[in-house]
């Protein structure tokens, strides 16, 4: 039985807004706009600079950052306004997403359109959303001191929280929309499919490490890296004694390797599972793989890079949909009550 229509629509809107937030975040990173706002003001920060004097004050704050001193000393006020507005939209949209998600919860709970179990689940999502905002600022802070870029580890953590949020929201939407387990399968097959989806999550986190290190700006050929399948730099003893995930060649090679592994696994799943969603997952994986190659050989063209980032969430969504269509042999098909995701 499907959940209340309003709850389903609301969750769908939240999923869509999360994807849009990923797009805005990608554009913010690719345009080097993320460090233009040097303070975190959740309430006062809703209002942008409204006068020339206010803009000059914000630019003066930006002038104290390593990014300004190393990369942007000749930036004009108009160019500063452009990158500031991109980061401002990023933060404002995050606040809007939080409001759209949190405000309806009391109404749906009081009117019993959602169960107590779902209320607890949604409150957990709200907590994760708060942690996501704090993690975003924690990430930005790493770029305001020392080197003129954010920590790629914090960037990966920021993305991982987004992955968790989106996965829970999308799964809840599918359940409320009436998507239920239908295809019987063995434990081994179910956990194999789950492992491939988990590998997809790992690949998304590796993508964040690649982005944080600007690793996509080097070795812009495929399938070869520096003229070889496995670049010679990976055989350095020094590399394996520490700093593997800080090395541009190592991180990019690992990202390529896991991508190929996911394509192979996804190609086998439709024949093994014979379940709905497996072919869709394969199609999404192949398209994402091609987008990744195009992004690499284009030396990270901003449009291709943004598409590659957001489509990783489409791949994740198709993987969760595939898992929702699987039912372990011997278990009854779940027929949830209204309001229970």
Automatic annotation (TrEMBL):
UniProt keywords, alphabetically: Cell membrane, Heme biosynthesis, Iron, Membrane, Metal-binding, Oxidoreductase, Transmembrane, Transmembrane helix
Segments passing through the bilayer: 7-27, 92-110, 122-140, 152-170, 190-213, 253-273, 280-304, 310-328
Keyword Nucleotide-binding: no
Topology of the protein relative to the lipid bilayer: Multi-pass membrane protein
InterPro entries: COX15/CtaA_fam, HemeA_Synthase_type2
EC number(s) per entry: 1.17.99.9
Pathway: Porphyrin-containing compound metabolism; heme A biosynthesis; heme A from heme O: step 1/1
Catalytic reaction equation(s): Fe(II)-heme o + 2 A + H2O = Fe(II)-heme a + 2 AH2
Any single GO BP term: heme A biosynthetic process
GO CC terms of this entry: plasma membrane
Residue sites binding heme per the record: 255, 308
Swiss-Prot/TrEMBL cofactor(s): heme b
Localization (cell): Cell membrane; Membrane
Its job: Catalyzes the conversion of heme O to heme A by two successive hydroxylations of the methyl group at C8. The first hydroxylation forms heme I, the second hydroxylation results in an unstable dihydroxymethyl group, which spontaneously dehydrates, resulting in the formyl group of heme A.
Family membership noted in the UniProt record: Belongs to the COX15/CtaA family. Type 2 subfamily.
Record's subunit section: Interacts with CtaB.
Protein name: Heme A synthase
GN (gene name): ctaA
């Amino acid at each position: 039985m499907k959940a209340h229509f309003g709850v389903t629509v609301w969750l769908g809107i939240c999923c869509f807004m999360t994807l849009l937030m990923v797009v805005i975040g990608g554009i913010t990173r690719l345009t080097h706009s993320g460090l233009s706002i040097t303070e975190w003001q959740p309430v006062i920060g809703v209002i942008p600079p409204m006068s020339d004097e206010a803009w000059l004050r914000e630019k003066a704050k930006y002038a104290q950052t390593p990014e300004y001193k190393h990369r942007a000393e000749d930036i004009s006020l108009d160019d500063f306004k452009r990158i500031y507005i991109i980061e401002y939209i990023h933060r404002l949209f995050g606040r809007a997403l939080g409001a759209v998600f949190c405000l309806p919860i009391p109404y749906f709970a009081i009117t019993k359109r959602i169960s107590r179990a779902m209320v607890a689940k949604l409150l957990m999502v709200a907590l994760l959303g708060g942690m996501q905002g704090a993690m975003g600022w924690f990430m930005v802070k790493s770029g305001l001191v020392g080197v003129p870029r954010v920590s790629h580890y914090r960037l990966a953590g920021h993305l991982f929280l987004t992955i968790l949020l989106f996965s829970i929201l999308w799964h809840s939407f599918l359940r409320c929309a009436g998507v239920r387990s239908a295809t019987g399968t063995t434990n081994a097959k179910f956990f194999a499919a789950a492992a491939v989806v988990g590998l997809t999550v790992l690949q998304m986190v590796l993508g964040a490490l690649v982005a944080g290190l600007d690793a996509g700006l080097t070795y812009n050929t495929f399938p070869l890296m520096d003229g070889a399948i496995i670049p010679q730099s990976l055989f350095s003893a020094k590399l394996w004694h520490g700093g593997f995930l800080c090395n541009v060649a190592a991180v990019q090679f690992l990202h390529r390797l896991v991508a190929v592994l996911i394509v192979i696994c996804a190609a086998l799943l439709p024949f093994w599972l014979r379940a709905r969603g497996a072919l869709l997952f394969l199609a999404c994986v192949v398209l994402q793989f091609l987008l990744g190659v195009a992004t690499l050989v284009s030396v990270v063209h901003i449009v291709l890079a943004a598409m590659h980032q957001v489509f990783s969430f489409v791949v994740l969504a198709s993987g969760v949909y595939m898992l929702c269509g699987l039912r372990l042999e011997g278990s009854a098909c779940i027929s949830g009550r209204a309001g229970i995701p």
